[in-house]
Amino acid sequence: MKRLIVFVSFIFLYPFFSWGQSVIEIRYGLNRAIWRLDDRIFEDFTYTLDRRIASIGINIPIHKMFSLQPELGYVQKGNKLILRDTSGTYTYTEKLNFIELPVLLKFNFKYERFTFYISAGPNIAFALNGKSDYLEQTSTSSFSQEDKIDFSAKEFKKSDFGIILGTGASVPIWKLRLGVDIRYSYALTEVLDENSIYPFKAFSKGIQLCGLIGIPLSWD
Fold first, then answer.
1. Counting Cβ atoms within 10 Å, is residue 99 exposed (0-12), middle (13-18) or buried (19+)?
2. What is the reported pTM?
3. Which domain holds residue 71?
4. d(CA 192, CA 202)
5. For residue 152, what is the domain's CATH number?
6. Tens digits of per-residue pLDDT, 103-135?
């Protein structure tokens, strides 16, 4: 426990000792979300959902080519499952919204005015809310239903833990840095809880495509 407290304190206090080089980084963009299923047959009928992501982090240099970046983010995740038979088409859409707390280690290298980087690190997420949509379409009728997700009913888990791998590039514009960031997020814990209606295990994953702006803590 003492080691954990020291580590967390280091992450949040180090920027003050490295004020002149630390950068606030703001990201906003698209999360192409989908579930990975343990059932190959059902996985063939899953489709991505285009959702949103926004985050703010602080890039803390710890070496000439390495930096540490803890973040606070809002991430929309989800999945679409479309089943078909001779009677019609049945679409199950799950949309969940999370607060995420990733901590990334970044390897940075420069080429002319551009800075490129590779990033990786753990990520923990906590669900805020969500909704389930069901759409049934047959040759003679159509039926739809929307329900808010009740996490207390133990259909969906309220938190998950995973990893993030990413890359990106930025260029200085005036005193700011503007760039693009691409990440692959993969949950190691299940989305579905014990009372889920789905007959499989599911894990969230997604491709995140974001624009970013870097704001130095020191304007000297």
1. middle
2. 0.85
3. 2-216
4. 6
5. 2.40.160.20
6. 999 999 988 889 999 999 999 999 999 999 999
